């Protein structure tokens, strides 16, 4: 099996929506992706495609955030959601998607990537709650983590605020987990 990782294209929209509806118990994540796109807050969607069958194996989305420290804006994104179809799991598909997305964002001068999720999973990428604790957020807590990009280039020790795109607040579960 060969899995190709690439940025999503228009032709992937229906498959992404279908995958999110299959993988999550509620429609929240599918709705989130739709709202982020409609609001113009989607920064990057990466997909994993099974090159043998053409099936969508997985996806990850990154959306614009408003993050500032002392009135200085820090170019930041939120990772959410990430999803891999059942039959493609535990083969590193999510890891490849996240790594590929982060590489692209780094090249686009993104300084911080936030995620709300399981520390046991996301710390392997370098996400850590300590970085996120510098920022006031309605999602603050051990599960809100951040990954500094650009070689860790980020004001140190200063307090700031981190606001997710408004689509997150419209989710019924109120949890923008990655
Ligand atoms: C989470 C998910 C994207 C992982 O996809 P995947 O392609 O199987 O992930 P990878 O192969 O890169 O990594 C698998 C590893 O992640 C671990 N893992 C998966 N979900 C985890 C979780 N919630 N907490 C901790 N570890 C987790 C697995 O135990 C496995 O660890 P191992 O390699 O040490 O055995 C996939 O399980 C999924 O789509 N789940 C449903 C949707 C979801 O919960 N998304 C995250 C919240 S938006």
What is the fold's blueprint, element by element?
Layout (H helix, E strand, L loop, with lengths): L2 E5 L5 H11 L4 H12 L2 E9 L5 E14 L2 E2 L2 E9 L8 H15 L4 E5 L2 H4 L6 H4 L2 E2 L7 E5 L11 E4 L15
Parallel strand pairs: 5-6, 7-9
Antiparallel strand pairs: 1-2, 2-3, 3-4, 3-5, 3-9, 6-8
Coenzyme A (COA) binds next to β5, α3 and α4.
Which terms summarize this structure?
globular; 9-stranded mixed β-sheet; Aminopeptidase; 178 residues; alpha+beta; binds coenzyme A
Number of helices: 5
Unreliable runs: none
Instruction: Identify the overall geometry.
Output: globular
Question: Which oligomeric state applies?
Answer: single chain
At the first level of CATH, the class is: Alpha Beta
- Give a quick account of the main beta sheet: strands, pairing sense, barrel closure: 9 strands, mixed
How many separate structural domains?
1
Question: What order do the helices and strands follow?
Answer: EHHEEEEHEHHEEE
- CATH homologous superfamily assignment: Gcn5-related N-acetyltransferase (GNAT)
Overall pLDDT level: 94
N-to-C CA distance? 26 Å
CATH architecture descriptor name: 3-Layer(aba) Sandwich
- Count the E strands: 9
Task: Report the β-strand fraction as a percent range.
Answer: 25-35%
- Named CATH topology: Aminopeptidase
> Could you tell me the radius of gyration in angstroms?
16 Å
**Ligand set:** coenzyme A
